Amino acid sequence: MAKSGLVLYIALVLLCSCFAWTQCAPGSALVTHLPGFNGSFPSKHYSGYVTIDPHHGKRLFYYLVTSERDPSKDPVVLWLNGGPGCSSFDGFVYEHGPFNFEAVKTQKGLPRLHWNPYSWSKVSNIIYLDAPAGVGLSYSKNLSDYLTDDLKTARDSHTFLLKWFELYPEFLPNPFFIAGESFAGIYVPILAFEVANGIDAGVKPVLNLKGYIIGNGVTDEKFDGNALVPFTHGMGLISDDLFEEVNRECKGNYYNSFSSTCHSKLSKVDQAIIGLNIYDILEPCYYGPSTWTVKAGKDRLPTSFRQLGETERPLPVRKRMFGHAWPLRAPVRDGRVPTWPELLNSKSVPCFNDEVATAWLNDKEVRKAIHAEAQSVTGDWELCTGRVLYYHDAGSMIKYHKNLTARGYRALIYSGDHDMCVPYTGSQAWTRSMGYKIVDEWRSWIFNEQVAGYLQGYENNLTFLTIKGAGHTVPEYKPREALHFYSRFLRGKRI
User: Fold this and answer.
1) Is residue 333 exposed (0-12), middle (13-18) or buried (19+ Cβ within 10 Å)?
2) Rounded CA Rg of the chain
3) How far apart are CA 400 and CA 406, in angstroms?
4) Which residues, including other chains, have CB under 8 Å from residue 256's CB and lie 6 or more apart?
5) What are the boundaries of each domain within the chain?
6) Nearest to 419 by CA among 204, 173, 163, 234
7) Segment holding 322, helix H or strand E
8) Are 212 and 246 in contact (CB under 8 A)?
9) CA distances from residue 301 to 178, 255, 329 in whole angstroms, order as listed
10) Segments in 20-101 forming alpha helices (H)
11) CA distance 423 to 425
């Protein structure tokens, strides 16, 4: 064979092997085993770093779980957890990842991993991304990168996606969605906007963006701030009389009223809900509510809206079963908000237990298996870190939702209806405020012959959906139902 013919033959072989799927994926990123798990994987796993700024040594960590069904055709979904400052291994370990993690009884033992029958990798390829730099296993050698904001985070995540798809070009034809929960209600629409603008501008590679998914997401200061009082009344947590008093004195404005009488009535609401698990009012708290205070009105906004950029911020509360990144309001002691060290060394914060994920991701063998840097580079893995100083500078997300849905991108906004951290009442109100025509009037949706929640569909492919009995992290509380609506939305099917 002539030399030119041999070169052409080799090129064709490489091209064909790539189209045979996953052969183009970097071999060094393949995960072959995981400590704590025995057996073979039903689909391929890849993990590692994408360097988004070589001058600063800024590297974002990802973990890809390919679809167990048809990875060559199934959608690719980017998953982001919130915070700001929470690792997307939250979703991997506790929500919809491929494994269920079983804690061991011995103090130094690693968790045991079992297959999760309701993993979202049953129907999609899913990328768990730690972002921004400084979160989870992502890091930068220039500490100035740990001072960030909404727009910078979106730009960095967009850069990650472009470089990631260059590493995995076989996925470019697949439908692409961006998903997340909690403060990712900020991350997701801004990133989707960046991606959409890049597509329109002809940025290469061209991503096949189809839509986005947000669960119990922070969206708008006014709507989120006014959501708690209607929620507490609707759930029977405050009396009709108190609700009427609050409405009369606050005139429906619980978020930024300057009336001292309104504040007095809101204090009664605060007292009524002390001791409840804010992430699921049906569940007990992990430690206890003795020093935990939840506030109505402007002070009950997520920490992300109230104290961004401070060096001493309230603890980003998380759990094994109960909770997420930030509280409605930090516990107040002696008239002040305690510092990070005080809270981290205290067990008075309820619903906080990350022992399983922390033990697993700080194990040397686990880090080696998933191609993560050692603790000497990234520091200890924390579910929600205090390293990142984050500024919420993009304002309300409603303008982003209007832009994206008007351009034809599909949007699913879902809410666990027993979450008091980001109550469904706020999400229901802001989706309605978009002014879109209702095309699927409020109705129940069914799973396993039972009512699983309610939804309302709007024109421009916007859907608001509740999950009956679920808390803040829906796939954790209702994994079967979550997989059901997730898979149907990805396929464009009626839920």
Assistant:
1) middle
2) 23
3) 10
4) 222, 225, 297, 298
5) 20-221+394-490, 223-354
6) 234
7) none
8) no
9) 25, 8, 7
10) 89-90
11) 5
Q: Which CATH architecture has domain 20-221+394-490?
A: 3-Layer(aba) Sandwich (3.40)
| 455: Cα separation from own chain's centroid | 21
Point out the residues that are catalytic.
Answer: 182, 419, 472
- Give 3-state DSSP helix, strand, coil % of the chain, rounded to 5: 35, 20, 45
In this prediction the pTM is 0.86
Name 435's Cβ contacts closer than 8 Å, sequence gap at least 6.
Answer: none
Find out whether 174 and 125 touch, Cβ atoms under 8 Å.
Answer: yes
Place of tokens 């109100």: 429
Token pair 């009389």 in the structure block, residue? 241
Report helix, strand or coil for 48: strand
Return phi, psi of residue 422, to 5°: -125, 85
Please, are residues 22 and 167 in contact by the beta-carbon 8 Å criterion?
A: no
Assigned token pair, 436: 């879109």
Paired strand residues for 64: 46, 127
Task: Match 């796939």 to its residue by tokens.
Answer: 475
Selection from 468, 467, 465 nearest residue 456 by Cα: 465
DSSP 3-state of 465:
strand
Per-residue pLDDT of the chain in tens (495 residues, 90 and over written 9): 454 444 443 343 344 344 444 457 788 999 999 999 999 999 999 999 999 999 999 999 999 999 999 999 999 999 999 989 999 999 999 999 999 999 886 667 899 999 999 999 999 999 999 999 999 999 999 999 999 999 999 999 999 999 999 999 999 999 999 999 999 999 999 999 999 999 999 999 999 999 999 999 999 999 999 999 999 999 999 999 999 999 999 998 998 888 899 999 999 999 999 889 999 999 887 544 433 344 454 444 444 333 333 323 232 333 322 233 333 323 333 333 333 333 333 333 345 568 899 999 999 999 999 999 999 999 999 999 999 999 999 999 999 999 999 999 999 999 999 999 999 999 999 999 999 999 999 999 999 999 999 999 999 999 999 999 999 999 999 999 999 999 999 999 999
The encoded tokens of residue 303 equal 């920490």
Q: What single-letter DSSP state applies at residue 290?
A: T
| Residue 340 token pair | 């990070």
